[in-house]
Amino acid sequence: AALLCESNPPARAAGSALHSLFIDGEGRLSSCGSAPPYAPGLLGHGEGVTQLNTPTQIPSTLGERAVSVSAGDFHSLALTAGGAVWSWGFGGEGRLGHGDTQSQLLPKKIEALAGRRVVAVSAGGGHSFVITAEGAVWSWGDGGFGERGHGDEQNQLLPKKIEALAGQRVVAVSAGARHSLALTADGAFFTWGEGGHA
User: Fold this and answer.
1) What predicted TM-score, i.e. pTM, was given to this entire model?
2) Is-contact 122 129, C-beta < 8 A?
3) Which of 98, 123, 139, 176 has the CB geometry, 3.0–4.6 Å to 70, for a possible disulfide?
4) How far apart are CA 113 and CA 91, in angstroms?
5) E strand or H helix at 2, and its extent?
6) Of 102, 101, 68, which is closest to residue 84 (Cα–Cα)?
């Protein structure tokens, strides 16, 4: 766990093309930016909030302080001190991890990860990752280019462990637009997904 924390420090702020997320000293979440019609709930402030010009505290409580955030293209992830993961925004392709494709206008806890202590999160174009305390990587969401790491191009509605990384202790992971990256404790680097534009 110490190696994971040292190699993958918590993000206290994150940004995408449309929005930004912040965690204050008390572990409260704020956001600003815009949520266009094709990205409902992106700001996490509920129905009708589509533009915030300054960081504004998200009204939903996570039950404990947030320690890390990740801003995807159309969705967001937050990690709490207890290792729980919350998601919100556009739910297409299952990118929120709730077992469906529904959008969430407020942060919602990913119940499929209950019982696992998550230490890092990463939201990408249409897919998401978490790293557990054991160094395992779980992914869900859009799989159109193999970016989830499960050896197929199917969408995944719930978090699923990446078996191709079994036996590796992953300390950092990053979800790009259509590709993904992982770094292990022994310095090995893994990539997968769309290989164009090299």
Assistant:
1) 0.92
2) yes
3) 123
4) 17
5) helix 2-7
6) 68
